[in-house]
Design a protein that fits this description.
Layout lengths: L18 E2 L2 E2 H10 L8 E3 L4 H6 L4 E3 L5 H9 L8 E4 L8 H10 L4 E7 H7 L7 E3 L2 E11 L4 E5 L3 H4 L5 H10 L1
């Protein structure tokens, strides 16, 4: 998923092309996917990120740019894709193939949401704008999911590789500390 505007980053680059440790975030995510057991990679882009679309060397799926959920729905409707699908946000510069393989191993069918305790995000000093209660605990989505045909499960982890989404310049500074 790499079609976001990145307005909270307050940077000149499109969000997926924002550099963390000198490398565009989308390139770091693509490297993690290449180092994982994922069979095929498609990038969901939007009109909000035309430079990102030109930058990518993988097939793209067009989305309307109406927000993460609407864009995900549009991407999943593309005939190139079939479920289950591993979805990964382009703002996760600490991802690597090993953590993605752990997610795939945790997937037992249906859909799987990868969550992190909201307290872990606060402990790391990164933004946690989207939190909700699950099993009596405040959690945040990570931007990594497996979308299947039926059912929904969750995998809770405090792993920094999925806990640090870069939405602000402060988030980027935290990510760079872990590179």
């Amino acid at each position: 998923m790499c079609g976001g505007r990145g307005t909270r980053l307050d940077a000149d680059a499109e969000k997926p092309l924002f550099r963390v440790g000198g490398v565009p975030m989308v390139d770091r995510v693509l490297d993690a996917l290449a180092d994982s057991g994922v069979d095929a990679v498609y990038a969901a882009t939007s009109p909000n990120a035309p430079e990102t679309r030109r930058h990518l060397a993988v097939p793209t799926v067009a989305t309307p740019g109406d927000g993460y959920v609407a864009d995900l729905d549009a991407a999943l409707g593309d005939p190139q894709l079939s479920t289950p699908v591993l979805t990964v946000a382009a703002d996760l510069p600490l991802l690597d193939g090993a953590i993605l393989d752990r997610v795939l191993a945790a997937h037992e069918g249906g859909s799987l949401s990868v969550l992190v305790p909201a307290a872990r995000k606060r402990e790391l000093g990164v933004s946690d704008d989207t939190t909700f209660e699950r099993d009596g605990r405040a959690v945040a989505p990570t931007g990594v999911n497996v979308v299947g045909d039926a059912g929904e499960d969750a995998w809770l982890t405090d792993d920094v590789r999925v806990a640090v989404n870069v939405n602000t310049l402060a988030d980027a500074r935290v990510a760079e500390q872990f590179l």
